[in-house]
């Protein structure tokens, strides 16, 4: 066991030396020359065949040039070059790590990852910015997106469902900046969020009832606060017979539902030709006989179409908004509607918002990386031209005797006002907490 630990330490230290990068770069040039000699035949090789080819070539390369490295170091260089030729180089292991949520590359030297909401710098690096750009172009190749000086920003969906954003010079001053957001292959279910402590059983029951009773819900929060994961979990409660249309800039939602139509906007070409916005898709979706419309993120003129849809028979629709509180969420809707050219008065806009939205679920990421629902707020109507709200639950953690922070949600003792939740209120009015729920077919159980 001690020998294995010693080998791991030696390997780790060698990978971070300048000698490792110098030998790897020289060996890479040698491999490229050999690949040119093989021509197009190399492109049809499997990963196993590439691995065998690299092992043989690197062994020969080291012996002929009398490079002073041992067998284990030769193996490390061969592994790195296999990832270089057949995969995504230094970040391949991070892409394959299920615990990694985000990979953030700030130029060729600095690579950070987020695990469980906590950012940490990784001891991996690229050789130079040209090397980083080569790997980025390999990531973008299957998507068919162009990245050059005339198009220096790319935001795209990866084939595995993740999302990549790249910005290069001249807009980026320190080399290519790459942000990769990974998504779980198996989306979190409500029971998973409950087990993770994102909310408690009472809030879970309320959200289940609100979704099944076709309440319109906005999930509000900051970047990487868990909005998409929560939206995915909420959609689990949508009854199976209903038709759901999802609309996103970059497809991130993966709903656990049998009848989902997924739509994604298109940025258009260099001159803007062929651009299709979320607003265009929302207008078109109304002709697709949706029972519910889910907007991945509301951040533009589509807010008007979303409000109209919610007010004209598409109850049960949902979306996310970047905002720091429920009140800020409402202000943001007003601001976006104004930017979109809303022609009515401020009072009529607020009346539309108050009639459309039933609940705002505020979620946040704590300093320790945990994601928690901060509050559940109900929109109750319009009062003196101000949108009236009532907070049903609030997150108020406390510190126990051991000095540990304990999750705690405080019920403010207010029952939901919405007539859609009349049956839910009847259960609340009985003895004890809510222990019922809605079946996937829309039926109620107690």
UniProtKB/TrEMBL annotation:
Coiled-coil segments on the chain, per record: none
InterPro entries xrefs: P-loop_NTPase, T2SS/T4SS_dom, T4SS_GSP_E_ATPase
Annotated Bacterial type II secretion system protein E domain residues: 85-363
A molecular function GO annotation: ATP hydrolysis activity
Matching Pfam families: T2SSE (PF00437)
Source organism superkingdom: Bacteria
Gene3D superfamilies in the record: 3.30.450.380, P-loop containing nucleotide triphosphate hydrolases
Similarity field: Belongs to the GSP E family.
Protein name: CpaF family protein
């Amino acid at each position: 066991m001690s020998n294995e630990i010693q080998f791991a330490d030696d390997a780790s230290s060698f990978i971070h030396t300048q000698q490792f990068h110098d030998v790897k770069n020289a060996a890479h040039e040698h491999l490229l020359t050999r690949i040119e000699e093989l021509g197009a035949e190399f492109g049809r090789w499997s990963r196993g065949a590439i691995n065998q080819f690299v092992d043989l070539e690197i062994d020969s390369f080291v012996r002929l040039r009398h490079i002073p490295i041992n067998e284990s170091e030769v193996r490390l260089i061969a592994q790195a070059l296999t990832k270089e030729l057949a995969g995504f180089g230094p970040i391949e292991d991070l892409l394959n790590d299920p615990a990694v949520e985000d990979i953030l590359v700030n130029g060729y030297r600095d690579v950070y990852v987020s695990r469980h909401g906590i950012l940490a710098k990784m001891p991996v690096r690229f050789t130079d910015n040209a090397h980083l750009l080569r790997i980025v172009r390999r990531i973008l190749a299957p998507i068919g997106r162009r990245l050059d000086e005339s198009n220096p920003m790319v935001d795209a969906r990866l084939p595995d469902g993740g999302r990549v954003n790249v910005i290069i010079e001249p807009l980026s001053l320190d080399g290519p900046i790459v942000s990769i957001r990974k998504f779980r292959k198996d989306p979190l279910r409500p029971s998973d969020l409950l087990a993770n402590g994102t909310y408690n059983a009472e809030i879970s029951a309320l959200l289940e009832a609100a979704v099944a009773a076709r309440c319109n819900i906005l999930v509000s929060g900051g970047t990487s606060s868990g909005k998409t994961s929560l939206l995915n979990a909420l959609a689990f409660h949508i009854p199976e017979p209903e038709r759901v249309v999802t609309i996103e800039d970059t497809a991130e939602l993966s709903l656990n539902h049998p009848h989902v139509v997924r739509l994604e906007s298109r940025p258009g070409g260099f001159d803007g030709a062929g651009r299709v916005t979320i607003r265009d898709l929302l207008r078109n979706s109304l002709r697709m006989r949706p029972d519910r419309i889910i907007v991945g993120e509301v951040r533009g003129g589509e807010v008007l179409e979303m409000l109209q849809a919610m007010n004209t028979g598409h109850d049960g629709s949902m979306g996310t908004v970047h905002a720091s509180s429920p009140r800020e969420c409402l202000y943001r809707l007003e601001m976006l509607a104004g930017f979109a050219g809303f022609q009515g008065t401020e009072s009529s806009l607020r009346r539309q918002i108050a009639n459309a939205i039933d609940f705002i679920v505020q979620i946040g990421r704590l300093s320790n990386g945990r994601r928690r629902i901060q509050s559940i707020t109900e929109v109750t109507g319009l009062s003196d031209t101000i949108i009236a709200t009532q907070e049903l639950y609030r997150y108020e953690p406390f510190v126990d005797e051991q000095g540990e922070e304990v999750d705690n949600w405080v019920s403010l003792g207010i029952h939901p006002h919405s007539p859609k939740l009349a049956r839910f209120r009847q259960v609340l009015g009985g003895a004890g907490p809510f222990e019922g729920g809605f079946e996937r077919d829309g039926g109620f159980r107690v």
